[in-house]
Amino acid sequence: MRDITNALLDWYDTHAREMPWRVMPAERKAGKRPDPYAIWLSEVMLQQTTVAAVRAYHQKFTDLWPTVADLASAMDADVMAAWAGLGYYARARNLLKCARAVVQDHAGTFPQTYDALIELPGIGPYTAAAISAIAFDEPSTVLDGNVERVMARLYDDHTPLPAAKPVFMKYALRHTSSDRPGDYAQAVMDLGATVCTPKNPSCDICPIRKQCDGQAAGTQLELPKKTPKKPKPTRTGIAYIARRADGAWLLETRPDKGLLGGMLGWPTTEWNEDPNGASPHSTDWTELNEHARHTFTHFHLILRVQTAWLPADAVPDRGHFIPAEEFDASALPTVMQKAYTIANATLRHV
DNA sequence: TATCCGTGGCC
DNA sequence: TGGCCAAGGAT
Question: For position A274, what pLDDT does the model report?
Fold first, then answer.
């Protein structure tokens, strides 16, 4: 038991990945503490998202809003625009709710314990454990996809996920460090991300190879077992991309709940087997030959694109005009950017 | 417990 | 090329 913990900590001392928000083990031993705001921001961004994708967004957010108080006082639309492209947009809405709760209910200081952190919006079991361990060195046990994979292999446990989560948590608890909880949490996750990878794991250089039952049994490539996923259906919709005579673009802020909630986008029909729903303005729409194809978590989308020029006095049924000089396609979610790229070929000339 | 919720890289 | 996968949370 204990030797696994120390083996991982020793490995982490020399193999920790550099991340802008991370306090490296040598700095931590010298007494440097992480900024809880930076750690919280990183952990929310890292939910189901790779480190490579998060780096630029974390930099942008800390540049725009250096403290949790700055973020709490930001405009909702500005935060959603800054998050555009990172996905899972409920995270951005909860990020704002959380920042405002920290300012209003915790005097602008993040609470330190798992029990207090998990009460905040957008912070679940994993993130509460990660923040309390990494930012405050509380002896919390993190259980993310990396740790699940490491434990499944370490104990050669073929119980399928997600039912196996409580079992893997029991394994993970055995090895949690009480001396260096933050470094240990990051060590297990770094191991899973760089050595005990889903495909082609580097067992030959693994610091806990000798203790690994899966490696001994040769089953590491099959683990962790997962319950099969449902196939993705294909849905179709129509995006309406219109410009007013003065060049302004017709856009619509989507409702907070549901897909792409709270994000700016083109007015569309509903997305079903066949598109149904009205256009945002009664006019002569032109259907383009090219479609925007996009795959979400649980369905494929074929988005047809229709364009139109509207008169200067047009009053649309839905959405609002954004002047050409204020329009920024990077504030749109990816599927809307794809539709824009297709439509812009014919609409770019005012 | 199951479903919903993005995106980009990888093989 | 299409499915898999990534430091999950809310409902």
Answer: 81
Strand C and chain A: which residues 87-116 have CB closer than 7 Å? 88, 90, 94
User: Residues 98-157 of A near strand B (Cβ < 7 Å)?
Assistant: none
CATH architecture designation of domain A234-347:
Alpha-Beta Complex (3.90)
* pTM value surpassing 0.85: yes
Q: Which fold has domain A2-222?
A: Endonuclease III; domain 1 (1.10.340)
Measured over the CA atoms of residue A251, residue A257, residue A263 and residue A265, the dihedral's sign is negative
* pLDDT tens digits, one per residue of A240-278: 999 999 999 999 999 999 999 999 999 999 998 887 888
Q: Name the residue with the least CA to C1' distance from nucleotide C7.
A: A46
d(Cα A345, Cα A70) in Å, to the nearest integer?
39
Q: Residue A144, CA: closest nucleotide via C1'? A: C7
What is the distance between the alpha carbons of residues A299 and A296, in angstroms, rounded to a whole number? 5
| pLDDT interval class at A222 (50, 70, 90) | very high
User: Is A287 part of the annotated catalytic residue set?
Assistant: no
Residue A261 beta carbon within 7 A of nucleic strand B: yes
**Domain layout of chain A by residue ranges:** 2-222, 234-347
**Whether the Cβ atoms of residue A98 and residue A140 lie closer than 8 Å to each other:** no
Chain A residues 65-104, Cβ below 7 A from strand B = 84-90
